[in-house]
């Protein structure tokens, strides 16, 4: 198996940071101003979006299931899965009851070693058994 590229390693460090509890922020991984789906915002606003979801589901963990990187263009795409048990009945704008999982597609443009632009394609929530939240993938 080939070793991960520099861009892949950089991205996996970002995923490790968003999985860290307590959530410590992303300044080492993202620019001070980031663009999310064509909406430019300060990094603090992006972090707030993420931390709001984490607060609503503290056991949320992101796992990369597919990763493609273009070192020359400094672009990366992935399919990322998260599993969690939201504390309330509404989570990320969806009505939920109990543990869920979701597959999302993310695309990133890096600049100077940090994420500058994110394109996020949210997925559908699927109900799962409580044992699947911290356990392995199906």
Distinctive features:
138 residues; seven-stranded mixed beta sheet
Short description:
By secondary structure, the chain is α+β, with helices and mostly antiparallel strands.
Number of strands: 9
How far apart, in Å, are the first and last alpha carbons? 23 Å
In terms of structural class, how would the helical and strand content be classed? alpha+beta
Radius of gyration from the alpha-carbon trace, in angstroms: 15 Å
User: How is the main sheet built?
Assistant: 7 strands, mixed
Please tell me the overall pLDDT. 88
Query: What's the oligomerization state?
Result: single chain
- The number of helices is 3
Dominant shape: globular
Task: Furnish the topology, listing elements before pairings.
Elements: H1 6-19, E1 30-36, E2 39-42, H2 43-56, E3 61-70, E4 75-84, E5 90-91, E6 94-95, E7 100-111, E8 114-121, E9 125-127, H3 131-134
Question: Any overview of this molecule?
Answer:
With 138 residues, this protein is of the alpha+beta class. The chain has 3 helices and 9 strands; from the N terminus they run H-E-E-H-E-E-E-E-E-E-E-H. The chain has helices at 6-19, 43-56, 131-134; strands at residues 30-36, 39-42, 61-70, 75-84, 90-91, 94-95, 100-111, 114-121, 125-127. Strands 1, 2, 3, 4, 7, 8 and 9 form a 7-stranded mixed sheet that branches. A two-stranded antiparallel sheet has the order 5-6. The protein starts with 5 loop residues before the first helix and ends with a helix.
């Amino acid at each position: 198996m080939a070793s991960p590229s520099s861009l892949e390693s950089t991205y996996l460090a970002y995923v490790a940071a968003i999985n860290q509890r307590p959530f410590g922020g992303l300044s080492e991984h993202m620019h001070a101003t980031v663009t999310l789906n064509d909406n430019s915002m300060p990094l603090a606003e992006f972090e707030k979006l993420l931390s709001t979801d984490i607060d609503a589901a503290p056991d949320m963990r992101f796992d990369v299931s597919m990763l493609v990187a273009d070192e020359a263009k400094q672009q990366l795409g992935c399919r990322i899965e998260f599993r969690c048990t939201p504390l309330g009945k509404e989570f990320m704008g969806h009505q939920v009851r109990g543990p869920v999982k979701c597959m999302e597609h993310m695309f990133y443009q890096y600049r100077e070693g940090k994420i500058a632009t994110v394109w996020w394609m949210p997925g559908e929530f699927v109900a799962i058994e409580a044992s699947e939240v911290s356990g392995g993938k199906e």
